[in-house]
Protein: [histone H3]-lysine(4) N-trimethyltransferase
Organism: Thamnocephalis sphaerospora
Amino acid sequence: MDARRRGAQAAAGAGAVVTAAAANPSAVRSASPSVGSAATATGESDIFKFNQLRVRKKQLRFARSSIHAWGLFAMERIEAKEMVIEYIGEVVRQKVADHREKMYERSGIGSSYLFRIDDDTVIDATKKGNVARFINHCCAPNCIARVITVDGEKKIVIYAKQDIEEGEEITYDYKFPIEVDKIPCLCGSPFCRGTLN
């Protein structure tokens, strides 16, 4: 498995996409620069936007990406602050996610797509998920991930940070913590930090 797809768990409430390898538990993809309660608060407008997103999904496609293997691309213009897509997968407890991550590693799947909702809940999109799992990292992203609550159920939603033009790749900053083993960043942004961590 390549270093760009290694990962583990996210900090509580951060909502982080996590891909593969329990052997590297410090590689974390964080969902937003200002996590905490702001990243998980849900207002009436979020619920309204979420219901709209269910009725009329954004036109997106996954295709080859210059950042890494596959990526997710807008097929229509998306305005800043709009919901882009819900990150969908199987909801599992942290212990189950840890077990699956090791199992995925042993079976040679290559990548797993685990996204933490809170301290004990993870969405596993590895086998049952949608195209949101193909969203790549960028040091200057056009989206953020947030955890919202709809009808008592926590959901992970990707929001546009800025206007996104048709054909543009959907990205967000994974925000891996600093660690000794560096994972190279291939985002190509003029603001690229050089590594994901």
Summary: The chain is about 15% helix and 25% strand. The helical segments are 37-40, 44-55, 94-107.
